[in-house]
Amino acid sequence: MRAIAREERPVTVAPAPQRAAQANPGQSAVDAVASGLAAIAAERTLAGVYRATCGLAARLSGVSGVALLRPGDRGFFGVAHAIPEKVPETFVSIASASLHQRWIAAHAPAAPTTGPGLYVVEDRPELLIVPLVRGDSLLGGLVLVGRDGPTPAATAAERLSVGAIGVVAAQAMEGIVQRQRLELSISRVEHDSELTTARKAISRELHDGPTQDLALAGLTLDRLVLSLGEDQAISADARQARDLIDRAVLGMRKAIGKLRSSQPPAPSITGPLRELLAEMAPAAPGLEVNFQEVSGVQLAPEVERAMIGIVREALHNVRKHADAESVRLEVRRVEDAVEIAVIDDGVGFEGPSPTGHFGLEQIRELAEEMGGRLETRSAHGAGTSVKAWIPLASPAASQRRRA
Fold first, then answer.
1. N or C: which terminus of the chain carries fewer CB neighbours within 10 A?
2. DSSP 8-state class, residue 281
3. Cβ atoms of residues 143 and 119 within 8 Å
4. What is the 8-class DSSP label of residue 138?
5. What is the distance between the terminal CA atoms of the chain, rounded to a whole angstrom?
6. Helix (H) or strand (E) holding 338
7. How does DSSP classify residue 12?
8. CA distances from residue 338 to 138, 289, 293, 389, 392 in whole angstroms, order as listed
């Protein structure tokens, strides 16, 4: 039998599915974010954190630009780092105003204590903002600009990634600032230690040198007076010189005692309020402060939080709207309450509050939430006085005592 030849047809092998092309286009960017968070946390400088944060956020889908905003010396937000280098000023201005309003709203009654989360700017869907928040501090904001209008990082996975970038960046920034403060604190301790050593060395030199010489001069004058006798006219001058030496020795010993004693720090207002004023004072026109009457007063956390919010918003209103040359901040204890007064010599206004400005309402709500009240006085060209009274005990503590 003859073998029957079979026609061998070429076998077509189907190509393997290209998973990367068929997958969610933002997935690879999400994977890059997951591996890049550690790089942000490992940065040792603020500039490095800014650069790594913007670079990582720029890899998300639909992102045409990224800017990291930080408050400057005058309290206004500015661009600390951006990709590309030049972000349209319009976007920066819109994002700064939106971020500030969100932060004010976060201090309203019943607002979540965690602070504002990431959000899309109203009427500007191409702007996605991530507030960089740690505790009760707004460290800045991460702004993502979308391509040709659509919102960037639109998928749920990318939104989680953007939120994670914001959290890690804020933690890294806070850690660097705290480390810098610790280093400064250590340097101050070392400086104080060196100063104390120097003071003690100077006191020993004064004791062993000029003080001993003065005492010896006094003994010499005593012998001179005895040798001259009471009838000599020069003995009166010698006795007067002896008195002067005694006073000089006494003054020298007092000075030595002061040099060898450590001076305790002067009492001051609560730490968070001091930090807020240190941040805002350079931008406040002719800021004068008076805290003497509340030095050492202990405040409930809720009361302190409300007081900080009131001072922050009042000073911001002066800086933004008053066009003032000077502003005075006074915090004093009035019976069982804290009185906060912010008085400026600016343009003033008529009516209960300026049209379109909600800062005074925010202050009123913060005071009334704590069981307090607000009083405002203003007139065109006559400046503005804002006074808030807050009970020392928070409403929650008062209810517990009544129970």
1. N
2. G
3. no
4. E
5. 111
6. strand 337-344
7. P
8. 25, 15, 10, 6, 6
Tokens (6 digits) for 170 = 């804020």
Q: How many CB atoms lie within 10 A of CB 212?
A: 13
Distance CA 11, CA 46 (A): 61
What ranges do the domains of the chain cover?
24-181, 198-260, 271-402
Residue type, position 353, single letter: S
210 within 8 A of 252, measured Cβ to Cβ: yes
The answer to whether 274 and 268 have CB atoms below 8 angstroms apart is yes
Residue spans of alpha helices (H) in 135-211: 156-206
φ, ψ of residue 80 in degrees (nearest 5)? -85, -35
- Which CATH topology does 271-402 take? Heat Shock Protein 90 (3.30.565)
φ and ψ of 341, to 5 deg = -125, 130
User: CA 61, CA 25: separation in Å to the nearest integer?
Assistant: 7
pLDDT in tens, 295-322: 556 677 778 888 888 888 888 888 878 8
Q: What's the pLDDT at 4?
A: 40
Domain 24-181 has CATH 3.90.950.10: no
pLDDT in tens, 220-263: 777 767 776 665 666 666 667 777 777 777 777 777 776 666 54
> Which structure tokens are listed for 161?
């990634």
* Beta pairing class for 327-334 and 287-290: parallel
Return the closest-CA partner of residue 386 out of 341, 345, 346. 341
Non-local (6+) Cβ contacts of 117 within 8 A are 131, 163
Cβ burial of 229 (10 Å; 0-12, 13-18, 19+) is exposed
